[in-house]
User: What shape does this take?
Amino acid sequence: MSDQNDPMAEIRASFFIECEELLEALQDGLQEMDEAEDGSEDPETINVVFRAVHSIKGGAGAFGLEALVRFAHRYETVLDEVRNGVLHPDSDAMKLFFLAADHLSDLVRACRDETPLPEETSEELLTRLDALLGDEGGAEEVAPEDFQPMGLSLGLDLPDLDAPTANHFTIRFKPEQELFATGNEPLMLLRNLCDLGTSSVRCNLTDLPALEDLAPETPYIEWLIELETEAAEPEIRDVFEFVDGLCEIEITGGASEPETTDSAPLPEAPSEEAEPEAALTEMPEPQVAPPPPAGAKPEDKEAAKETGEGRKGGAAAAKSVVRVDLERIERLVNLVGELVINQAMLSQSLDEAGLSPHSDAMNGLEEFQRLTRDIQDSVMMIRAQPVKSLFQRMSRIVREASAAVDKDVRLITEGEGTEVDKTVIERLSDPLTHMIRNAVDHGLEGAADRETAGKPRAGTVKLTAAHRSGRVIIEVADDGAGINRKRVQEIAVNKGLIPPDIQLSDSEIDNLLFLPGFSTAKTVSNLSGRGVGMDVVKTAIQSLGGRITINSEPNKGTTFSISLPLTLAVLDGMVVNVAGETLVLPLNVVVETLSLGPDDVQMLRPGHYVVRVRGGFVPLYDLGVMLGYRQQRKTEAGAIVLLIVLEDSTRAALVIDGIQDQRQVVIKGLDDSFYRAPGIAAATILGDGQIALILDPADVIAGMGHMRGADLMLSERMIANE
Amino acid sequence: MSEQGQNNDLELLTFRVADQEYSLDIMSVREIRGWTRTTPMPHAPDYMRGVINLRGTVLPVMDLARRLHLPSQETNDRNVIIVVNLNGTLTGLLVDAVSDIVAITEDDLQPPPDMSTDPQMSVVRSLTVIDDRMIRVLDLRAVVPAASDEVA
Assistant: This one.
């Protein structure tokens, strides 16, 4: 990257990445606290919340981000009261905690992007946070400089010891190379240790080689500390908590401690926490004898300790991960794409060579195909991310939106672990934001109306994600009044979108919402109703290869379902011939193939045919004609027909000339800078090196001058009414 | 264009389209490749021949004769596709045959006579004479339509 020359910039960047993780953990924790009944919160949850804020504060201190430290500190103070059981947050307090968490993430981002900090909001929130303390008592204003590094019990299974007695410990502390590589400072640890009681520290230099033999980055020295303290062993271990696994520690002595001589403090020492950082942070100075840092600032002490902690928090949340430049993954994806094409070419040439299907070459090829597919799946998995981050952003949108329209709204999320291609997640954020706002603003009624309707005052918006038959389904459901169809139709008529006397079915009316220029809000509210409406959402979803459908029930609510492809890179396709061209149809829309008998096709009116399939009539389209490859033929009898069903249950029969194959194809984007073909979603490269176009069946049918689904019937009726 | 009047050397790639001689600044030419069958795009303008596979990317190919409103020739094996780079976007131009690379100076270029009613002339940036033959220098920006031109 470009910042290679500046190690600080890299460390800083990794701090902000950690912050994102911590903020996520914070959100999770708060959510859990919020959902738990009063008093039944898991103390560990509060610890997680507290720790996240604490770690952000620590890291921010190290980078001198004063405003962030200040806010995080006072937020943390309040959370500490909760942790200690002094303060029991009610639902208002929880709301405030959420707001504070949102604000904290704003501050982090402002610091990262070096944009002006929203100081006013800080002040307001801090006042409200302090008010919480005031009410409950126990509010002591702690200046940021005063706080001590806290020995947090980070879920360690160590026995609690009450009854402090004067204990004598001998501690041997030998840092390893990683300890320095991760930016820890032994001096700080020793100082912290000395703070626990009376101590004498000796430095053991016996291992130190002569200067010419000295490897500058290898630590050679160890310290022996004699400590008289009231503290028990766990507290001493706490001092070394953040360098756990990065050094040798032996603690001997103590009054009431039976297991005092284990040299590895924790059996499951999570050593991976050091690895990602070790590569990044190279200590510039040799680490033979750590000198006291020049110009040490007062908060350095906390800083050193807490960057360690931040690391720990991040690592604990994210298991063992490697951060990889997205570009490298892109390259891998492209290479795998090439591999798939190449394999198709190889397969074709082996076919043409006329080898027996039982020959070694063909068997090998089969194995090769299987491997290619596995590689492809694995590579796609790298790009896949859980939708959790997206959903968390949405929970913030709900909070803000509900505050703006003064409605009490709960967001329930399900299936946060559902993994979707990273690009899809990124490009889903805007449409989803819009839909959530719509649900809060238009979908849900006001509290009074809800009570009249016999519903709880607080509205619910449910956001779910799930994998279903090779696609991702994301649903936004509210338990509001449902779509006011009468009103929707009125508006559409008033805006001249539909003729006034037309009779529409419920789903036809619902689909009017997607028409450009439609907005139902009676007044332009803060949130929505600026004219950019569901049509924009629909376009955005379609550009991702997705579909959106509405399902609304009066008084029960409205559900918007988005169906998306898992990845934007490969597609299971059916390769077909049409008028001498090779085309690919997404396999998931094809439900049946049939060959037409002479009596199967009926003419609806000139140029419009239907085909009878299992007792129903399905409109028949000749793909060759639709794409402009040939003229309408006199009869379609004998033709091969693909029966397709679109997301919105629209059925259509497509006339083709022949089916070649079913296979995975690599999606190649079409450069539509000067021509965008209707009905064509993308292209792929076939085994013979030729390009085949990938159809977007919904768009093809729409391109025939008909609209899909409800729109289709609508247009037919409009023609009939004319 | 702005570089006119300077004594910079200029290299032109000359080629034949419908028995006429045209040329392009060689700096905008990325490569020349033999004719391969194009995959036609549905409902495309008539000068869009379709797309071809250029080492794994999809390259749109334009029939230069049709684009210049010249009688289109039957395609044969000697036709070539000139791959040009315009602002980072690659486009293929189908021409009859590539003739030569000539080095001239900007002074050798003459502005075309004002014949603004002729649609073909708007894409010709300047004229030059080589071996007593008139060669038209194409303005690539006018030849390759911009995204906004073709939305409708």
Remarks:
- Strands of chain B lie at 9-17, 20-25, 29-34, 48-54, 57-63, 80-86, 89-95, 97-105, 124-130, 133-138.
- The radius of gyration of chain B is 15 Å.
- The CA atoms of residues 11 and 27 of chain B lie 8 Å apart.
